[in-house]
Amino acid sequence: MKILFLYTRFDKALKEKVKQLEAHNAEVSTLSLLEYKLKKGDETADLEPASKLEFLEKSTARLRLLNRIYKRKKMVRSLEDYDIIDLYECEQSALFIVDEIREKCYDYFITCGYHDTPSLLLKPFYSYLYNKARFLLFNSHKNALMDHYAQKSRLIYDGIPLFDAIDKITQEDIFKASYAMGFDLDKEITYVHLQGALAKQLAFIEELLTLPQERLRQSTFIFYLNAHNLQERKAVKALLEEKNFDYLLIEVLITAKQHALLYKIADKSIILSAQNNSGLPASCYAQNHTYLYHDTFIDPIYKEKDIFIDTFENFKNHAGEENSIIADLCKANQAKVAALFSPSATINQYIEVLKEV
Hints:
By secondary structure, the protein is α/β, with parallel strands linked by helices. The chain has two domains: 2-159 and 345-355, 3-Layer(aba) Sandwich (Rossmann fold), CATH 3.40.50; 162-341, Glycogen Phosphorylase B (Rossmann fold). The protein has helices spanning 12-23, 61-77, 91-94, 98-103, 123-132, 145-148, 162-167, 171-181, 198-208, 213-217, 230-242, 256-265, 279-285, 301-304, 312-317, 324-341, 343-355; strands spanning 2-7, 27-32, 37-40, 43-46, 82-88, 105-111, 135-138, 153-155, 188-193, 219-224, 247-250, 268-271, 289-292, 310-311. The protein has an eight-stranded mixed sheet. The chain has a six-stranded parallel sheet with strand order 11-10-9-12-13-14. Helix 1 (12-23) packs across helix 17 (343-355), helix 9 (198-208) runs parallel beside helix 11 and helix 13 (279-285) packs across helix 16.
């Protein structure tokens, strides 16, 4: 089967999806709607067409858009035919090339991204885009489009390659990394996923410091700032530096193995945001005792599959060794989240949708 992904951002989830589909012998290509580059395997072709509207690039944003729409239309017309074209989180950029896309494939899917409610002017174009698609693919229940287009909506989670890295961590790896980072393994070690609104992150740190001093003395907290802009980093660091408790702050990019080690070293994880990130399933897969900070939204699938996730109130009220019941629940989480979020499971979900065509 020949599949083409149109995209504006080649993220980790798309990279993993391409890799998994190729492992299933699909012929997969990717095409950037911003850079006009087509990639298939190790080969990359520049498909940027000549445009008689190029002079508009020196004009206003709206006029520049006219040139880009013209070039996208011309580029798509030049493509060979595909069985499926997947518009990967690029609805806005594909609004005005729907007919050209339809001419180049048997059917097209839309892997839906997150975007603001369209203006009244653009609503008819979005409706046309969605109505002509064979399926709309979502990686979360938290999308109003799922109800509006219920018949053609399919739920496919993003595969999490970190699971494989977690599997490869040995006890020796844990001891060596703990020694290198100065961790006392006799302490309660908690990995905190600082995600979401900055105000919520700062409020969490303040609330953390309301724990009894004895509990704080027996605890170490890990903070990894991997999705923060400069302003957010400064705010988090400034607040932490004011406080007196044991923590490790990681600001640099780390490898998959290093990231996996953080989960395996930690006894517990606290999730501040479970929207569009791997923190919650990775924490469950690593068998951490996982807590949600207050009103954090999680996908209903966790409750449906009976995946054990605790509340932050219970984190504040509990310290010390885990009882055997909690330990067994955390251990059982691994197989449950693997069935939903492992790369092999999620690509099988995608393949099942392909079979419906």
